[in-house]
Amino acid sequence: MELNDVKETVRDVLVVGAGAAGLALACDLRRRGVDVQVVERAEGLFPGSRGKSIQPRTQEVLDDLGVIAEVRALGGPAPVGMVWENGVRQGEHRLFEDQTATAAEPYTGPWLLPQWRTQEILYARLLDLGGSVTFGTALTGLAQDADGVTAELTRAGGDGGEGAGGGARSLRTAYAVAADGGRSTVRRLLGIGMTGESVDPAPMLVADVRVPALDRLNWHIFPAAGGTFTTLCPLPGTPDFQLVANFAPDQAPDTTPEGVRALVAARTHLTADDVTEVRRASDFRPRAALADRFRDGRVFLAGDAAHVHSPAGGQGLNTSVQDAYNLGWKLGQTLRHGADPALLDSYEEERRPIAADMLGLSTRIHRGEARRGAETRQLGLGYRGGPLATGTAGALHAGDRAPDGPLPDGTTIFDALRGPHFTLLTVATNAELPPLDGRLVRRYEVDAYEPYGKGLFLIRPDGYVGWAGEDARGLREWLRAVGADTTGHRP
Q: Potential cystine with 303: which of 67, 85, 148, 320 (Cβ 3.0-4.6 Å)?
């Protein structure tokens, strides 16, 4: 759709920003039949590798969104670190704790995939689902009332400015989501503050480079005096390395190709000529910040617009995608299945504490106060005690992540969960059930299985147990509250 063709367009949801969070949200909304418009200020997808670690919990999300095959095919496991000194290998340094896959947790360590590739995969999925992104379009105004949101959008000219192709247009939607990054225009227009701190006074440089002279078997680490370091990590599925280097607080990184080559020559055994190409380079100061709130009326914040992380530990992109995954089904239930809009209040209630915890973890890892262990895999995250967590049964509490495992027909629980529906697992029980709307809730019987124990487990579309019980008392009331019980009426 070309925004210049109309003066006002009506959609269900406006997503501002085509990063990983915005694209994941748009994919989730489209598979729910929600009419979504994604706009992106830039003329194309982000071209850098920065957020390269896909944690196990995010791999489960991408499995549900239908793109895990591409993610696994085009990425790879994190290589073992190799420490260098004066051009001599000093020994291995394991950056991540080893973990063995199990039936309940099929994805273990981080899967490396350049951020640009993750976004390409999600963008292709969005196109398959009938969605699109309008690039070169900036949000310049935002207003909301009791019935919806009105956004003013400016189509950039070919030079990135408001050239001949420019001109403001109006877009009317029921809801809007800010997924437009740490310098979010939407957040600024809403007047939402962001509280944070500098994680490290030392600036950092991140670059995508090609170094054919360096082997791709290790994540190469070059420590130096004064606490500075340089690393070169091979990026799976590409000929590139991601270069990361920190500097003294009073130094400014030189991001020119000549500056990047000089840095590599000064800090490693490689020469400047060994860097045959500098594809992208940027500098930043690590910061941790959390938006004061994740919602203002009909507008929500997600991803970096809501929380900004140190890159240490690989939590930023993952937390962002999981924001989208939490919000998508709630918007879908509200817009398509008559759920009480109060359901949307649970987004901030569930996600803001998670984001705060992950910010703290990223900061501790950056400062050397914590290792990249079980917490970074994000499989232990959940919503126990939250507004949508009701009951307990067997080994699980409502709010827990739903484990994977085998089903009697040879498929898996994750196969059963894949899609926009709710899932009722009856595990080692013949408890009587109320009528269920098969369009919204799918039922599966599971033999005795230790990660669940005996009971009934209603799993939300985002893979968390919403309701659990030894019998069905309270199940229908929970489904009704989230717009998933339509057996007695049609909204």
A: 320
Nearest to 25 by CA among 126, 173, 114, 174: 126
Segment holding 337, helix H or strand E: none
pLDDT for 158 beyond 60? no
User: How far, in Å, CA of 342 to CA of 349, rounded?
Assistant: 12
Question: 180 in helix, strand or coil?
Answer: coil
Rounded CA separation 335/32 (Å) = 10
Domains along the chain?
Answer: 3-75+113-195+288-376 (3.50.50.60), 76-105+201-285 (3.30.9.10), 385-481 (3.40.30.120)
Amino acid (1-letter code) at residue 133: V
Asked if 478 and 471 count as a contact pair (C-beta separation under 8 A), the reply is: no
In angstroms, the CA 461 to CA 329 distance is: 6
**Closest among 439, 419, 486 to 28, alpha carbons compared:** 419
Q: Please indicate, yes or no, whether the overall pTM of this predicted structure exceeds 0.85.
A: yes
pLDDT per position as a tens digit, 250-287: 889 999 999 999 999 999 999 999 999 999 999 988 77
